[in-house]
């Protein structure tokens, strides 16, 4: 379950987030610290216990897993905006050990034109790292294995958008009567 908390009262928001975290729910919080700055975060925290007994071989493991992310957006003057997003996934607990953790981040900047009808943006994901390094540990009764996996994650992007016309939705009340049933 994912719960979004948007609250001007930071104490109340923090209190709700702490309670939900102890109950192993996903918590998000969004704060406008300044009229031009927005911060959004998300945390998912859980405990995993694996009990495995096969033909007398006990292979039990447990541990905490979590995922954290933070998004910061800032609106500069003259229709210019910037955004920074970071994400961290902790090591995943498995029957034989832990699977890789990883961290990545994305930076973006966007300029709007023509009364916000057109925009051009640039983005970069992990621009300073050629790879995301993922370390894996596998532990068995008579064997230990350590591996590093290098995932090419660096990317750059250009976006262009244009809005044509004005899109309006009119909500019409639908009849609750079934046309197959004659009126009395």
TrEMBL record:
User: Does this entry carry the keyword Membrane?
Assistant: yes
Residues of the Outer membrane protein beta-barrel domain: 26-162
Species per Swiss-Prot/TrEMBL record: Pedobacter westerhofensis
Q: Which SUPFAM superfamilies match?
A: Porins
Q: Where in the cell is it found?
A: Cell outer membrane
* Sorted UniProt keywords: Cell outer membrane, Membrane
Task: Kindly report the protein's main subcellular placement as a broad class.
Answer: membrane
Q: Which Pfam families match?
A: OMP_b-brl_3
Taxonomic superkingdom? Bacteria
Q: State the protein's name.
A: Outer membrane protein beta-barrel family protein
Name the GO cellular-component terms.
cell outer membrane
Coiled-coil positions:
none
Q: Does the keyword Membrane apply?
A: yes
């Amino acid at each position: 379950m994912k719960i979004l908390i948007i609250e001007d009262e930071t104490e109340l928001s923090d209190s709700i987030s702490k309670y939900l975290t102890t109950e192993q729910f996903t918590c998000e919080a969004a704060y406008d610290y300044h009229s031009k700055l927005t911060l959004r975060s998300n945390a998912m925290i859980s405990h995993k216990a694996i009990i495995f007994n096969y033909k007398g071989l006990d292979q039990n493991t447990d541990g905490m897993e979590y995922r954290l992310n933070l998004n910061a957006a800032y609106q500069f003057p003259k229709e210019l905006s910037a955004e920074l997003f970071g994400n961290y996934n902790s090591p995943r607990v498995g029957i034989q050990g832990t699977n890789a953790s990883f961290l990545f981040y994305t930076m973006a900047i966007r300029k709007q034109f023509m009364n916000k009808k057109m925009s051009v943006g640039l983005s970069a994901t992990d621009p300073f790292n050629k790879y995301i390094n993922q370390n894996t540990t596998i532990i068995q009764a008579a064997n230990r294995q350590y591996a590093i996996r290098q995932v090419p994650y660096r990317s750059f992007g250009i976006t262009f958008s244009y809005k044509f016309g004005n899109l309006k939705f009119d909500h019409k009340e639908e009849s609750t009567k079934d046309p197959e049933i004659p009126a009395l």
